[in-house]
Amino acid sequence: MTLPATPPRVHVRAPGKLNVFFEVGGVHSDGYHDVASAYQAVSLYEDVWAQPGDDFTVSVSGSVDTAGVPQDDRNLALRAARLVARELGHDGGVHLEIVKHVPVAGGMGGGSADAAAALVACDALWGGDLGTQGLHRLAARLGADVPFALMGGTAVGTGRGDQLSPALAKGRFDWVIVTSEHGLSTPEVYRHLDDLRARTDIGPAPEVPTVDAGVLHALRAGDPVALAEYVRNDLQAAALSLRPDLREPLEAAESSGALAGIVSGSGPTLALLTADAESALELQVTLTATGYRSLHVHGPVAGARVMAG
Ligand SMILES: C[C@](O)(CO)[C@H](O)COP(=O)(O)OP(=O)(O)OC[C@H]1O[C@@H](n2ccc(N)nc2=O)[C@H](O)[C@@H]1O
Ligand SMILES: Nc1ncnc2c1ncn2[C@@H]1O[C@H](COP(=O)(O)OP(=O)(O)OP(=O)(O)O)[C@@H](O)[C@H]1O
Description:
- The chain is α+β, with helices and mostly antiparallel strands.
- The protein is built from ten helices and twelve strands.
- About 35% of the residues lie in helices and about 30% in strands.
- Strands 1, 2, 3, 4, 5, 6, 8 and 12 form an eight-stranded mixed beta sheet that branches. Strands 9-10-7-11 form a four-stranded antiparallel beta sheet.
- Strand 9 (about 260-265) and strand 10 (about 270-275) form a beta hairpin.
- Helix 1 (about 75-90) runs parallel beside helix 2 (about 110-125), helix 2 crosses helix 3 (about 130-140) and helix 5 (about 185-200) packs across helix 8 (about 235-240).
- The radius of gyration is 19 Å and the shape is globular.
- One of its GO terms (molecular function) is 4-(cytidine 5'-diphospho)-2-C-methyl-D-erythritol kinase activity.
């Protein structure tokens, strides 16, 4: 007796990210800003399963509120799948099953992780061999954060944030993240920063955004205390202006043992740096008892990769 063939199914996991340091320069006519980012991939993951289908379809579930995630052609992972199909000349479709753990519109690049995972999954499913460079090229067409979700680890991103070079990081960094019920729109936060720069005294955009050498040194040394001196995010002023309620948990964290606290990317998730895993656990317990939704994560972790089974 022959058993019916099980359709092939590829499982890829991709990480969320924090911007340990983020400097924003001037804006171009296409609406994009020059940036300098020190990215770190952290242990909060998106899982994507890809299996052959007649059309391009997606289903989304997870441990976070997924109500804001489109399940049609606007879904970034589905757009990634279509790009791979076009690139490989593949004429079938795919069903993507996404299980999300990264907060939606939270500033941790969850949609970008889904897209990176879909690129890798579809390339594997259809027997393509796009390779690191081919995948990176497609990733950059999908969004500024997508190439880093492919690469993972710790890296410096310039240009739109998509021109990457790996950064050395020793050991692990323990972070507590504080999540919000409602997300922030990335373009709106960037626009608000431009507006604040034009109207207030927060200072002008840097001519050439650059990651401070102190950040790279602290990462290389595996020294969270030194890193705390340098963590910074230019989008923070805009995110806090749009969401003043974030000031309270930031202050609470800093008085409860965090070495430093910043808004992650375009927010509203907060990233709190701690000395080690034990301190992170203590901080998380304190913040949870105060009523904040918090999670302990660590970085760096690997980028999008195929999982066994
Ligand atoms: C805030 C960060 O998450 C930090 O890593 C990224 O800069 C945003 O990356 P992303 O969400 O992948 O961004 P995209 O989807 O490419 O762009 C969304 C919008 O964000 C703004 N954007 C994004 C990246 C960049 N360097 N400058 C920008 O001004 C633009 O308005 C753009 O239309
Ligand atoms: N697969 C996806 N997962 C989540 N959001 C998606 C996806 N595809 C499209 N989107 C849209 O993108 C928006 C931003 O989602 P995402 O969760 O990536 O935000 P983010 O983490 O703030 O992004 P970033 O930090 O890269 O700016 C969502 O509000 C949603 O409308």
